[in-house]
Design a protein that fits this description.
The protein is an alpha/beta fold. The protein has four helices and six strands, in the order E-H-E-E-H-E-H-H-E-E. The protein has a single domain, classed as 4-hydroxybutyrate coenzyme  like domains (Transcription Regulator spoIIAA). The two termini are about 20 Å apart.
């Protein structure tokens, strides 16, 4: 997922994708969700590639990039360390 919070990280060079072996220098995503600013940012942006989510999450593809780091959020954590990332609106 590519969201509004990613834009400043890209603009400031915090994340570049330059060290990847698969699609180097590109941001690969299955979807975006956010504001008009986000949609304007990704529109015709040659640095962002939209691919099928099955490919984006394929562990065979992910492991070809050394030092892959996944950052996720949690809504809740129970006493055993189980994470809840669901929400109901």
């Amino acid at each position: 997922m590519f969201s509004d919070g990613t834009i400043p990280l890209v603009e400031k060079g915090v994340i570049t994708g330059n060290n990847k072996t698969v699609h180097p220098g590109k941001f690969v995503t299955g979807f975006v969700i956010g504001s008009k600013k986000l949609y304007d940012f990704v529109a015709d942006n040659q640095g962002i590639i939209f691919l099928d989510i099955a490919y984006v999450h394929d562990t065979d593809v992910l492991r070809r990039n050394p030092k892959t780091t996944a950052i996720n959020s949690a809504i809740g954590v129970d006493i055993t360390g189980q994470i809840c990332a669901d929400s109901m609106c």
